[in-house]
Design brief:
By secondary structure, the protein is of the alpha/beta class. It has helices at residues 10-26, 36-41, 57-63, 90-97, 105-110, 123-128, 180-187, 206-226, 245-254, 267-271, 284-290, 329-338, 345-356, 364-375, 385-413, 426-433; strands spanning 2-6, 30-34, 51-54, 74-77, 113-116, 136-138, 162-166, 233-237, 258-260, 276-279, 294-297. It has a six-stranded parallel β-sheet, with helices on both faces. It has a five-stranded parallel β-sheet with strand order 9-8-7-10-11, with helices on both faces.
């Protein structure tokens, strides 16, 4: 197989791409990494792949905009598919069928396969597009695969417990340098079709999003400042869509001694070196519980916060019902000091099964590669193998040239790589390769 994998957010998706490449090479295949520059501006002219894996239908529409000339080798594998665990699954519906499913019908009709994270994610297909069920495979959360773990975790060498703070403040400190004015304009309801996030919340708008973020940020700083740095080490994990420089400047201003994770470090690697996670409502809770870590959620520290929560937001994710949610900062501190951080195992396990297919997630990378030829039998024939390889090499040559031009321009204007804004240079490709160092071939 010759497979193209779109890396949308580097810190999220690169480790999956790395593991897929090694697993594919072990069975004689080849995987090509892509980023937004390569996917959205070059790929359509060099489609030589047996399978193109994209993270949403909107990417498919952008990459191949002509509804009368669509390929038959596109697969959808979401990069974030567990924030939609509310009752309607409306946001997930948009990822697979588009925000306007009728207009996007030519695209979702021609998708070769939908690779789902969890067992409950078949529901939108059963309810709205049962004819697509033959194109659906539940593969598990790809980042939970054993192939994506870091074998160099240092849990046995650290001297103090590590408290990990998960940051989710991308409106307050966006990775792309937007001003607060621009953050408001890009997220407000006025003059736009209603975002899926705002559905079922007719009385809420962008100010409610800011309210919850400011509350969560203030309480995070309060907790961090109240803990004894002689007893604990503090690690901060910025959201992929945050500007990490904000945390670095904050540490200097407040004289707080905490370690900010590398912007491109996979979450599972960061999590392996943490004992307790303190977080606002976040999809990272699935990773936390799957890997057996303790989690404290800060959503209930300010009672009025609940008045600003959107129905379809992560704040209503069903896994929260099984988490530890203290009512006061003092209770948070006590939980950390005692390391008594309870969770409801029955609720958590059910959510893990439904949303990340915990029963098969450890093998999710192999599940993906197994599903590709099942869903697109033409892969098994590969009638134009030599021509396809030549086209793939031409694609790489053109993409590398464009990537280095953007990299040089970025150096000239002082652009910092963050989130989705990264350059696919040879150095970056080698870095992605090294994210999964274990010998995956020996397991076959």
């Amino acid at each position: 197989m010759l497979v193209y994998f779109h890396i949308d957010e580097l810190a999220r998706d690169a480790v999956v791409a790395s593991a897929l490449k090694k697993e594919l090479e072990a069975i004689g295949g080849r995987l090509v990494y892509g980023n937004r520059l390569m996917t959205h501006h070059i790929l359509r002219y060099f489609n030589a792949f047996d399978a193109i894996i994209l993270s949403s239908l909107s990417h498919y529409v952008d990459v191949f905009p002509d509804p009368n000339n669509l390929p038959d080798n596109v697969f959808i594998l979401q990069t974030e598919a567990i924030g939609q665990a509310t009752k309607t699954l409306r946001r997930m519906y948009g990822k697979y069928f588009g925000d306007d499913a009728q207009r996007c019908e030519p695209w979702h009709r021609t998708v070769a396969g939908f690779l789902l994270w969890g067992h409950a994610h078949t529901r939108p297909f059963q309810e709205y597009y049962p004819a697509y069920l033959s194109k659906v495979r539940v593969v598990g959360h790809p980042r939970l695969s054993t192939s994506c773990l870091n074998s160099k975790a240092d849990s046995k060498t650290r001297q103090k417990p590590v408290i990990g703070f998960v940051s989710r403040f991308n409106l307050l400190s966006p990775y792309d340098g937007r001003t607060p004015f621009e953050s408001v304009l890009s997220s407000m309801r006025f003059g736009k079709k209603v975002f899926p996030l705002f559905e079922n919340s007719p009385d809420r708008d962008v100010e409610d999003l800011f309210f919850t973020e400011v509350i969560d940020f203030r309480k995070t700083i309060e907790i961090m400042s109240s803990l004894d740095p002689e007893k604990y080490d503090f690690h901060v994990r910025p959201h992929p869509r945050e500007n990490r420089q904000g945390w670095i400047r904050l540490a200097e201003k407040l004289k707080l001694n905490f370690k900010v994770s590398q912007w491109d470090e996979p979450f599972s690697h960061w999590l392996q070196n943490v004992d307790v996670v303190v977080t606002p409502p976040s999809t990272s809770l699935y990773d936390v519980f799957f890997h057996g870590k303790k989690a404290i959620v800060t959503s209930d520290l300010v009672p009025t916060r609940a008045n600003h929560v959107l129905t379809e937001s992560d704040d209503n994710n069903q896994i929260l019902e099984g988490t530890c949610r203290p009512k006061t900062v003092e209770e948070v501190l006590g939980r950390i000091d005692s390391m008594d951080v309870p969770s409801d195992k029955a609720i958590v396990d059910q959510c893990l099964y439904e949303q990340v297919a915990a029963d098969i997630a450890a093998d999710s990378i192999r599940n993906i590669l197994k599903a590709l030829p099942e869903l697109r039998p033409a892969i098994r024939q590969s009638p134009q193998q030599n021509r396809n390889r030549l086209l793939a090499n031409a694609f790489l040559f053109v993409s590398l040239g464009a990537s280095y031009l953007r990299w040089l321009r970025g150096r000239f204007i002082g652009r910092v790589e963050q989130g989705a804004l990264f350059d696919m240079t040879l150095k970056r490709m080698r870095w992605i390769n090294r994210l999964t160092l274990r010998d995956l071939g020996s397991a076959h």
